[in-house]
Write a structure and sequence with these properties.
With 150 residues, the protein is mainly alpha-helical. Helices cover 57% and strands 7% of the residues. The relative contact order is 0.09.
Amino acid sequence: MVRDEDGSTRAREVYARLRADIFGGRLAPGRRLKFGELRERYAASAGAIREALVALTSEGLVVSRPHQGFHVVPLSHRDLAELVEARLVVETRALWLSVRDGDTAWEAGVVAAFHVLERTLCWTPPTVRAASQATRPTRGTPRTPRSTTR
């Protein structure tokens, strides 16, 4: 296997980019992953693409279907409901901790974000993201930093 200057393999880079594209929604659930398109998109050899797809298959993010090739794993309504439920649990706890630990500067940011949302006719993603950022914890841990972005 040919290694890049930094010692990582090309397949590992393709794997990371494919994984990010799946999680980022740029490769939709159920989408067929055609080698030609992937080679062009990631500027990689068929071997590197295949190695990355096999790794993603072992993680359950990609499925291989006989005579049909590789596909992004489909997302069912139940899968989505479970993801939303898990997110609600985590974010509810994070908000509770923020309220518990927040200082007056944090509280002022939350009140300001509420006023912006209250006066906004059309909630755009940047507006909602800014309001969400305002409710994040005032202090973070190595695993949950304050400046988390989506």
